[in-house]
Amino acid sequence: MKVMLRENSAGKLTVYVPKKDLEEEVVKQIDSEAGKVFTLANGWELEISNLAEPLKIPQTYEARRVN
């Protein structure tokens, strides 16, 4: 699914999922074999591979829901 990573007004990293009209704050980030796993405030875990370092935002990425 396509997601957009960006910062909210408080400077926190957020994920916006257009198809679900969902915007949630990232509460945890971990590295995995395939990329990074972002845990959202609603409990979703999204895995995003091929992230550039340093992270360039706002940017649209392809993500896979882990749980």
From TrEMBL:
Signal peptide: none annotated. GO terms for biological process: nitrogen fixation. Pfam families: NifT (PF06988). SUPFAM superfamilies: NifT/FixU-like (SSF159203). Gene3D superfamilies: NifT/FixU-like. It comes from the Bacteria. InterPro entries: NifT, NifT/FixU_barrel-like_dom_sf. This is Putative nitrogen fixation protein NifT. It comes from Dulcicalothrix desertica PCC 7102.
